[in-house]
Write a structure and sequence with these properties.
four-stranded antiparallel sheet
Length: about 100
């Protein structure tokens, strides 16, 4: 849906988009907040598009680009790290582990 709506302004970030299991990786020049609104309008409010900043590689069709990840709305690096630490019984530095 996003690729169709933003045709000519958004494309897969080849070759890094291949083999992904949780997120989709795009490149282009769009407004992520506008894309999130579009996702919600089409019943995909459980997803969000994250603008990961500029990329060094240029597109033959789009020129200078930004990278975007389409991820679950509740997903974040900090949430993933916190879950990873809990699963392994780890605590952030400065916190003592209970015995």
């Amino acid at each position: 849906m996003l690729l169709e709506h933003y045709a000519g302004r958004l494309e897969y970030h080849d070759p890094w988009h291949r083999g992904r299991e949780i997120s989709h990786l795009f490149r282009g020049l769009i407004d992520a907040a506008e894309a999130d609104a579009l996702l919600r309008e089409h019943g995909h409010g459980h997803l969000r598009l994250v603008d990961n900043g500029g990329v060094h590689r240029q597109s033959d069709t789009l020129g200078q680009l930004r990278a975007y990840h389409l991820i679950p709305a509740g997903g974040s690096k900090s949430a993933a790290v916190a879950r990873h630490m809990r699963a392994r019984g780890l605590r952030p530095r400065g916190h003592r582990r209970r015995r």
